[in-house]
Amino acid sequence: MSHKFGLRLSSFLVPLVGSAFAANSVTYDFESSTSGDLFDGGGVTGWSQDTSNPSAFGQTFPLAYVAATNFGGGSSNSAHLGTQVANTPDNADTTLTGDLSSLDPIYNMLNVSFNMAVLDDSADSFEGRDAFNVALTTAAGSQVATIGFNPNAGDNEVWDVSVGVNGSTSTTPQTISANSGYSFYISSRDNTTTFSYGAGDGSGNIIGLGSFVAATSLNSITGITFEHDPLSEVGTSAHTLAFDNLTVQIPEPSSSLLMVLSAGLIAIRRRR
Fold this sequence. Notes:
- By secondary structure, the protein is mainly β.
- It has 2 domains: 1-23 and 254-272; 25-251, Jelly Rolls (Sandwich), CATH 2.60.120.200.
- The protein is 14% helix and 44% strand.
- The longest helix has 20 residues, at 2-21.
- The radius of gyration is 22 Å and the shape is globular.
């Protein structure tokens, strides 16, 4: 009886240890794309766009596309969400979803990093204020971890940063400025999710944005979304969110976890 139980438990722990050793990741750097590629219609591998590009006067106006951007560490292809001109559908949100279904998270352990900048067309006389949102999502569309960029009430060139888990966010004391590059980070271990950011070129310190201790569904994420919300009632967009070097990684577990699992296997063998 104990022999059979040992075999069953061992067959459970062996793949668990194997999966614990197998860190995996998904990276989107858009270098395999060409400047001008459109996200609409699956034009960028691994991504989908929920709102069709509008057309007028025989022209198509892209809501998201690939173009060169300098985040402070050199120019490279990056994703651009928004148009910077008055051609968006009236007050229509646009969401890009990057596929993360190949990941196999365990124990809610996850690392996320990406470069971003809010680009402002200073030549545009109409300062429509656009908001942007980045979220890890499940197949059901639930937002598990979120970073928001909302127009600052006192400065047209500044956005307030908000962070949160399970579909809700809180505004932080931190802000970002237009046409400046930043790096953002999300790190989760068990039930603690931590947000931070720094300069896009890697200079300076990493600044904490907050930690949340709460049960989440990070083990069930299937995508990461970038949402553009033109806040102007007439649908005018004056800003673009550029992002690049997105990496979502399942880190290797701590040595203490591996020791616990290994000890379990040793105990089973001894009992056998």
